Amino acid sequence: MRFAVIGAGFYGLHIATRLKALGLEIRVFEKSDDILTFASGNNQFRLHLGFHYARNFRTRQQSRDGFFRFLERYQQLTEPIPENYYLVPKGDSLIDFSTYKLIMMSSGLDFVEKEHPVEISYPCGSVVTAERVLMIDRARQHFYQHLPDTIELGVEATVSMDDDRVRVNGESFDYCIDCTWGHLMPDKNFFFESTILLYYRKKEAGSLARAYTFVDGPLCSLYPTEKPGIFTLSSVPYTPIAQHGTSDEALHAIATLSSHDINLKRLLMEKQIMRYYPGFLDDYEYLDPQLCVKTKPFGHDDDRSCYVKRYGRLIKCLSGKVDNIFYAAAEVMALIEDETE
Q1: DSSP conformation class of 35
Q2: Based on the domain organization, do 194 and 125 belong to the same domain?
Q3: Inter-CA distances, 57 with 61, 98, 269, Å
Q4: How many CB atoms lie within 10 A of CB 98?
Q5: In this structure, are strands 190-202 and 230-235 parallel, antiparallel, or unpaired?
Q6: Tens digits of per-residue pLDDT, 238-291?
Q7: Total domains present in the chain
Q8: Same domain, 74 and 197
Q9: Are residues 111 and 233 in the same domain?
Q10: Whole-angstrom Cα distance, residue 218 to residue 234?
């Protein structure tokens, strides 16, 4: 059987390796000139355990299960964080600290309750967890090695279907797996969100690379990247630029975002984190923005879980965190099981 996979992010590449392991013929189509360059290469580089999602059980469960499966298969593509704090600021969080701890304990998530770091002056309950940082350059090397002569770069895919075949750029396949998160074929239950994160360098080279995530609700986080001393600053209210009905509208929004708008976002995000960490600008210096597009489901329940849907010979993977690639692959396998046995 022949499979076309559209999109060379973590989802597309992982699913392609699983299908190839079954002896199936795989082609991966990626419109960029490298793999892991769009959403997979523009985010906070966090391998989630589920602590970010107190208000959504499905996302928390998928993240928890996927985290350990990710470490079983891809631990070499991650690094630990010396001190990874989740902080619940009193009065600012949508839930109190005791409730937050109860939710995480009932989900089977391990943590250590600890006093918040001295640089955090705002009253917060805090826990330390074992989440990790994704190493994107290592991941690129890994997938190029394991998918030789499989990935076609700089190719924008067009898809058409009939009853028993699907065509990608005119070429016939048994199945097409859309891992573009709706950019190839939108879904009415999801929207596109143009986003901005900010890169900062820690001024004191070689100092402890702490991560700070303030939960739960319209708060912010500071998280390390694969580059030593470089961090991303993210904000629930200020990272989103706008919601869009189409992928093209979202891409246009980030392509035309002015320096004035970027500076305004920067001021708002710095003000937000300095409410909790007053010496932030004494310890970190601003570098550059990171602009990208996310695909999210409509709703206010903080759902970031993965959904896999089949439309004839087309299978779509939608939303989800990076550690949900195993859930997505299992769902794809279940949908095609009868024909691959």
Answers
A1: S
A2: yes
A3: 6, 17, 28
A4: 10
A5: antiparallel
A6: 999 999 999 999 999 999 999 999 999 999 999 999 999 999 999 999 999 999
A7: 2
A8: no
A9: yes
A10: 11
Q: Give the pLDDT band (50/70/90) at residue 340.
A: low
pLDDT band at 15 (very low <50, low <70, confident <90, very high): very high
Q: What 8-state DSSP symbol labels residue 298?
A: S
Q: Are residues 76 and 223 in the same domain?
A: no
Amino acid at 103: I
pLDDT given for residue 93 in this prediction: 97
Q: What is the CATH number of the domain that holds 118?
A: 3.30.9.10
Phi and psi torsions of 325, nearest 5°: -60, -30
Domain boundary among the residues 279, 297, 315 is at 297
- pLDDT grade for 186, boundaries at 50, 70 and 90: confident
pTM: 0.91
Average pLDDT on 127-140 reads 95
CA distance 305 to 56: 9
| 201 shares its domain with 180 | no
Q: Quick one: average pLDDT of 184-196?
A: 87
Beta strand 314-318 with 307-311: parallel, antiparallel or unpaired?
antiparallel
As a whole number, mean pLDDT of residues 195-214 equals 90
Question: Which tens digit of pLDDT belongs to each residue from 314-330?
Answer: 999 987 788 889 999 99
CATH at residue 166: 3.50.50.60
Q: Are 62 and 141 in the same domain?
A: yes
Three-state DSSP state, 330: helix
Q: Among 280, 297, 314, where does a domain finish?
A: 297
DSSP sequence for 56-112 = -HHHHHHHHHHHHHHHHHHGGGEEE-SEEEEEEETTTSSS-HHHHHHHHHHTT---E
**Residues 207 and 326 both lie in one domain:** no
Q: Are residues 152 and 256 in the same domain?
A: no
**Which of 288, 287, 305 is closest to 296 using CA atoms?**
305
Domain assignment of residue 32, given as a range: 1-81+135-185+305-341
Q: Which tokens go with 128?
A: 């330390």
